[in-house]
Amino acid sequence: MGTIAQRDLYRMICDSNERGERVVVATVANTRGSTPQQRGAKMLFLESGDVAGTVGGGCIEAEVWSEAREAMRSGKSALHHFSLTAEEASEEGMVCGGTMDIFIDVIGDNSNQ
Known about the structure:
By secondary structure, the protein is of the alpha+beta class. It has one domain. Helices cover 33% and strands 29% of the residues. The protein has three helices and five strands. It has helices spanning 6-18, 58-74, 86-92; strands at residues 23-32, 42-46, 51-53, 78-83, 99-107. The protein has a five-stranded antiparallel beta sheet, sandwiched between helices. A hairpin with a 4-residue loop joins β2 and β3.
């Protein structure tokens, strides 16, 4: 999964909104140290189960997927902190060693849940 162009991101959000579907957008808000993506990287989670973009890969992306699913269910946006410190990175086989703050934003109404 690679990065997503802004125009594609907003087109997908608009299309989902027109269908009345909820969308979750994960955006890298801040990074410190070595991280797999830079600030501004986005990942889009659609109610249909489709996903576009990336915020990093590996364990971080798995954790973001989990938080996005919860946000999709609850409708609540929040800022999440993810640590890729050297100790945790070596335990998980990662090559990074920084921290990332990722804003998980819920867009749209989901009245059918």
